[in-house]
C-alpha cells in the first residue's frame, strides 16, 4: 500500500519534471518540479516563508481559540435558557452555510479593512462546525448522565468539568479538526480574493502576490506550503492529539 | 485481482500524462480575441468596437473570415494568463505588469500606447490630510501588487524616504469597484489609489481628500495603458497592421469627433454624458499612440529589483528593429 503511494507520487513528480523540461509547455504555466523545489528553498531560507506560514497558522489558531470560548458560552446559555438555545439553532442554520468569502463585502462595510475584520470571518468559519458538534455531545452526555447528576447531587463545577468537559473531549478533537480545515480554507481564500492582510502577511497573500509578479515557481511553492500545512494539521496534529477519555 | 490493480494503476498513470499534456494547446485560430479592462483609459477600444473600425480594417485586408471576440478581464494578470494559454491575442495593460511579463519570458511587446490618465491616492476621511500623517494601521487599496498604482506609490516612497517598500506591508489588493465600496465606509484608515471614473466618484463622497496624484509620484506625464500582443500575432502582418491602423483611427476619432465619441461612450459605460464629459475633460486624460515614460518605469523597477537587468536588452516595441 505504502509502496504504491510512494511510487505514484514519484511517478507524478517525474512526469511533471519531464513535461516541464521538455519545453512543450511555457515555463510560465508549468515550470519543472526541480525549479519549484529550488524556489521553495529560496523562499524558505531568504524570503520569510516560515514567518508567513506561522502567521497564517497563528491567525487560524487564534480564531479557533475564540471560537472555543464562544462555543462554551453559547452552549451554557443555550442549556440555561431554552429560548436562547432555539435561537442559536435557528441562527446556525441560517448563517453557517455562508462561506466566509460571501460575507466579506459586508464585513468590510462593518469593520473596514483590518485584523478585526479578518478575525470575524475566521471565527464565522470555525465557530459553527465547532458549536454543532459540541452541542450534540453535550446533549448526549446530558441524556446519559442526567440521573447520575440528580442522584449524587453533583456540584455545578463537578458536573461541568467531570461530565461535560471530560466527556466531550473526543468530540472536541474532531470539532477542532473540522473547524481547523474550514478556518484554514477561509483564511487562504479571503487573503487571495481580497488580498486582505494584517500588519504581517499570510500564505494566501503570498501566492496572490507571486501570481501578480508572474513568479510561477513561487506560486507552486506557496501552494505546496499550503498543502503541507493542511496535511500536517489535519492528519497529524488533530488526529494524533492525545486527549483523555472518561471511563 | 492483482491484474485488476495493475490495470487501474496503469489507467491512472495514463490519465495523469494526458492531464499534463492538456496544459499545452495549439489550435489554429480564425478568431481574433481582444481584451481590455474597466475604466475610461480604455475608451479607444470601446470606440473601435462600436464604430466597427477593426472589422473594416480586417475586411480591407481580405480577412473577412476572421471573427473578432471582445473580452473584458478584471486585471492584467488575468490578461497575461489568458495570453499564455493562447486564449487571447491582443490585450491592453498598464506598463509595469507588461514589463513584469517581459522579464519572465512572455514574448509580448507594445503595439502602441493608448492613453494617459489621471490617478490619485484618495483618503476617505478629513482626519488624514497627508501621507505623512498615516500610521501602520492604514490600509492602502491598489488593484494588485505590481500594478501601475503600486509602482507609483513605490516611486513616491523612494523619493521621499529612500525606501520604495515603505508602504508594501499596508497594501490591500481590490478591484476598483470593491475599493470604492470600502471607501464608502469612511473609515479613516483606508486609502485608495484609483483612476477615473472611480476617482471622481470617490471625490463626491463626504470628506474625501486627495493625498497624492500620479504625476507627482512619477515626476511628469506618463502613458498609463499600452496595447500589446505576442509574437504569433506580430508574425501575421495582415492582422497586425489592420489592428494597429484601426486602433490609431479610434484614437484619432476621440480627438476629431469628441461629441460623437461622448455619445458612444456614454452608452457603453452607462454614465450620463455630462458626467462623462467632466471625466474626459480632465487635463490629464489624454488619448494618444505615443508611449511616454517607459524608460523611467524600466530603470526604477530594475533599480528596485522588481525586474532583472536582462530587460534592459529586451526589445519592448514591435517593429522597432526595422526602424
From TrEMBL, chain A:
Q: Which UniProt keywords apply?
A: Cell membrane, Membrane, Transmembrane, Transmembrane helix, Transport
Q: Which InterPro entries match?
A: MetI-like, MetI-like_sf
Q: Which residues cross the membrane?
A: 54-78, 90-111, 186-207, 219-238
Tell me where it resides: Cell membrane
Q: How does it sit in the membrane?
A: Multi-pass membrane protein
Q: Which residues form a coiled coil?
A: none
Query: Residue ranges of the ABC transmembrane type-1 domain?
Result: 75-236
* Alphabetical list of SUPFAM superfamilies matching this protein: MetI-like (SSF161098)
Task: Tell me the PANTHER family matching this sequence.
Answer: ABC TRANSPORTER PERMEASE PROTEIN (PTHR30151:SF16), ALKANE SULFONATE ABC TRANSPORTER-RELATED, MEMBRANE SUBUNIT (PTHR30151)
* Name of the protein in question: NitT/TauT family transport system permease protein
Q: Which organism is it from?
A: Fusibacter tunisiensis
The organism's taxonomic lineage, starting at the top: Bacteria, Bacillati, Bacillota, Clostridia, Eubacteriales
From TrEMBL, chain B:
- Entry protein name: NitT/TauT family transport system substrate-binding protein
Q: What is the lineage of its organism?
A: Bacteria, Bacillati, Bacillota, Clostridia, Eubacteriales
Amino acid at each position: 500500500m505504502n509502496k504504491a503511494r510512494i511510487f505514484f507520487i514519484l511517478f507524478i513528480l517525474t512526469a511533471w519534471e519531464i513535461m516541464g523540461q521538455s519545453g512543450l509547455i511555457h515555463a510560465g504555466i508549468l515550470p519543472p518540479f526541480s525549479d519549484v523545489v529550488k524556489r521553495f528553498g529560496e523562499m524558505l531560507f531568504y524570503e520569510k516563508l516560515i514567518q508567513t506560514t506561522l502567521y497564517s497558522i497563528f491567525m487560524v489558531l487564534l480564531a479557533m481559540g475564540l471560537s472555543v470560548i464562544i462555543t462554551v458560552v453559547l452552549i451554557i446559555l443555550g442549556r440555561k435558557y431554552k429560548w436562547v438555545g432555539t435561537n442559536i439553532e435557528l441562527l446556525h442554520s441560517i448563517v453557517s452555510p455562508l462561506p466566509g468569502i460571501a460575507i466579506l463585502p459586508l464585513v468590510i462595510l462593518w469593520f473596514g479593512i483590518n485584523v478585526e475584520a479578518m478575525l470575524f470571518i475566521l471565527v464565522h468559519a470555525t465557530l459553527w462546525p465547532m458549536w454543532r458538534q459540541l452541542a450534540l455531545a453535550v446533549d448526549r452526555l446530558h441524556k446519559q448522565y442526567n440521573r447520575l447528576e440528580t442522584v449524587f447531587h453533583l456540584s455545578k463545577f463537578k458536573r461541568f468539568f467531570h461530565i461535560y468537559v471530560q466527556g466531550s473531549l473526543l468530540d472536541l478533537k474532531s470539532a477542532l479538526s473540522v473547524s481547523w480545515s474550514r478556518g484554514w480554507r477561509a483564511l487562504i481564500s479571503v487573503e487571495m480574493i481580497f488580498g486582505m492582510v494584517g500588519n504581517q502577511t499570510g500564505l494566501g497573500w503570498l501566492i496572490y502576490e507571486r501570481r501578480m509578479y508572474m513568479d510561477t515557481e513561487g506560486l507552486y511553492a506557496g501552494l505546496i506550503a499550503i498543502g503541507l500545512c493542511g496535511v500536517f494539521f489535519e492528519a497529524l496534529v488533530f488526529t494524533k492529539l492525545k486527549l483523555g477519555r472518561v471511563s | 485481482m492483482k491484474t485488476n490493480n495493475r490495470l487501474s494503476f496503469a489507467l491512472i498513470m495514463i490519465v495523469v500524462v494526458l492531464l499534463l499534456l492538456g496544459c499545452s494547446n495549439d489550435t489554429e485560430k480564425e478568431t481574433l480575441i481582444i481584451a481590455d479592462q474597466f475604466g475610461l483609459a480604455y475608451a479607444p477600444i470601446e470606440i473601435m468596437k462600436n464604430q466597427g473600425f477593426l472589422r473594416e480594417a480586417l475586411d480591407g485586408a481580405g480577412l473577412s473570415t476572421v471573427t473578432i471576440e471582445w473580452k473584458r478581464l478584471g486585471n492584467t494578470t488575468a490578461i497575461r494568463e489568458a495570453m499564455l494559454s493562447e486564449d487571447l491575442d491582443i490585450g491592453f495593460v498598464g506598463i509595469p505588469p507588461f514589463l513584469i511579463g517581459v522579464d519572465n519570458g512572455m514574448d509580448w511587446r507594445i503595439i502602441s500606447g493608448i492613453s494617459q490618465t489621471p490617478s490619485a491616492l484618495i483618503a476617505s476621511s478629513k482626519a488624514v490630510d497627508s501621507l505623512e500623517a498615516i500610521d501602520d494601521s492604514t490600509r492602502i487599496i491598489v488593484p494588485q501588487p505590481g500594478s501601475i498604482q503600486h509602482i507609483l506609490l513605490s516611486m513616491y516612497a523612494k523619493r521621499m524616504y529612500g525606501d520604495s517598500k515603505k508602504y508594501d506591508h499596508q497594501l490591500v489588493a481590490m478591484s476598483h469597484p470593491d475599493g470604492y465600496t470600502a471607501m464608502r465606509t469612511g473609515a479613516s484608515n483606508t486609502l485608495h489609489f484609483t483612476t477615473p471614473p472611480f476617482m471622481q466618484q470617490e471625490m463626491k463622497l463626504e470628506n474625501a481628500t486627495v493625498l497624492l496624484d500620479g504625476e507627482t509620484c512619477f515626476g511628469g506625464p506618463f502613458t498609463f495603458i499600452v496595447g500589446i500582443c505576442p509574437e504569433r500575432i506580430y508574425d501575421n502582418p495582415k492582422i497586425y497592421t489592420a489592428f494597429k491602423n484601426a486602433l490609431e483611427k479610434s484614437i484619432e476619432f476621440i480627438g476629431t469627433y469628441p461629441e460623437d465619441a461622448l455619445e458612444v461612450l456614454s452608452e457603453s459605460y452607462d454614465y450620463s454624458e455630462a458626467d462623462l464629459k467632466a471625466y474626459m475633460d480632465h487635463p490629464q486624460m489624454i488619448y494618444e499612440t505615443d508611449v511616454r515614460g517607459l524608460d523611467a518605469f524600466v530603470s526604477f523597477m530594475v533599480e528596485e529589483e522588481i525586474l532583472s537587468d536582462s530587460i534592459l536588452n529586451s526589445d519592448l516595441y514591435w517593429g522597432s528593429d526595422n526602424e
